[in-house]
């Protein structure tokens, strides 16, 4: 049984059909990439999965449950986490407090009122920062981080509470080549506990970390398969690789 499955997703904005009968699936502990030309519907599909957009038709299933009508917050409680293109760390707060707030968002109101969570979550905060090579800056404000480091911090915030599925929309945008390489190294270990759906324009990056790829073109699925299958698909080469 797939962890995530979309069935016949349609999304219409006025006279524009952004998604047309899109169905794909993501298995447990799988890294799945969404690729395609600009305007092909990748980010819209991610928003429909995350609950930021409601499909005009179709269903979204997560962990064998229909979540089509659930809010983003309800999907998060079900085990889904996301990071969109724009970094949303809190620059005036320390790296430590950014991670702490992410974890506290999963805590009960009673524990927050009693101010018991900071001490209880300390080890988890530091472990998360260490996993993303940020532990030595725990007491620094997030504002001093480079663009790449701020992206790593936000990914760490999305993963701190160990979701079952992480959605990433163009996480390497604006990064240097070295930062992109390190991002791949930081993401690979999460496969032990988390599946990944990622939209990314850097084809080398997405080929290196993904198990399977789905190609979108003009709101429809053009092809889906392993990296090798997609690379050798003549229709993909014609429609996507020459236009990206």
Polypeptide structure, described:
This protein has 244 residues and is α/β, with parallel strands linked by helices. The protein has 2 domains: 4-87 and 164-241, P-loop containing nucleotide triphosphate hydrolases (Rossmann fold); 90-144, no CATH class. It is built from 10 helices and 9 strands. The strands form 2 sheets. A 6-stranded mixed sheet has the order 5-6-7-3-8-9, sandwiched between helices. Strands 2-1-4 form a 3-stranded antiparallel sheet, with helices on one face. Helix 3 crosses helix 5 (117-131) and helix 3 runs parallel beside helix 6. It is globular.
Overall pLDDT level? 90
Q: Please provide the ordered H/E string of secondary-structure elements.
A: EEEHEHEHHHHEHEHEEHH
Radius of gyration: 18 Å
Largest sheet: 6 strands, mixed
Please, how many domains?
2
Q: Strands across the major sheet, in which order?
A: 5-6-7-3-8-9
What is the CATH H-level superfamily of the largest domain? P-loop containing nucleotide triphosphate hydrolases
CATH architecture identity of the largest domain: 3-Layer(aba) Sandwich
Q: How does the helix and strand content classify structurally?
A: alpha/beta
Number of strands: 9
Annotate the secondary structure layout.
Layout: E1 4-13, E2 16-26, E3 31-35, H1 42-50, E4 57-62, H2 72-78, E5 80-83, H3 95-104, H4 109-113, H5 117-131, H6 147-159, E6 165-169, H7 177-187, E7 195-199, H8 203-209, E8 212-217, E9 220-226, H9 227-231, H10 234-241
Parallel strand pairs: 3-7, 3-8, 5-6, 6-7
Antiparallel strand pairs: 1-2, 1-4, 8-9
């Amino acid at each position: 049984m797939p962890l995530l499955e979309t069935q016949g997703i349609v999304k219409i904005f006025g006279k524009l059909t952004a998604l047309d009968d899109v169905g794909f699936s993501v298995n447990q502990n799988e890294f799945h990439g969404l690729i395609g030309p600009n305007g092909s519907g990748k980010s819209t599909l991610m928003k429909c999965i995350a609950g930021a957009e409601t499909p005009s038709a179709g269903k979204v299933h997560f962990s064998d449950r229909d979540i089509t009508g659930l809010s983003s917050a309800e999907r998060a409680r079900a085990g889904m986490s996301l990071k969109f293109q724009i970094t949303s760390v809190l620059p005036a707060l320390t790296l430590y407090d950014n991670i702490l707030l992410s974890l506290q968002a999963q805590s009960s109101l009673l524990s927050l009122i009693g101010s018991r969570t900071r001490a209880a979550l300390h080890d988890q905060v530091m472990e998360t920062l260490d996993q993303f090579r940020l532990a030595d800056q725990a007491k620094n404000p997030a504002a001093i981080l480079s663009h790449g480091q701020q992206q790593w911090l936000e990914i760490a915030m999305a993963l701190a509470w160990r979701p079952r599925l992480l959605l990433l929309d163009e996480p390497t945008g604006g990064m240097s080549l070295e930062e992109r390489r390190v991002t791949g190294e930081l993401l690979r270990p999460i496969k032990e506990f988390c599946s990944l759906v990622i939209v990314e324009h850097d084809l080398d990056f997405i080929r290196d970390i993904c198990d399977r790829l789905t190609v979108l073109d003009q709101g429809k699925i053009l092809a889906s398969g392993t990296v090798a299958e997609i690379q050798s698909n003549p229709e993909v080469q014609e429609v996507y690789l020459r236009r990206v």
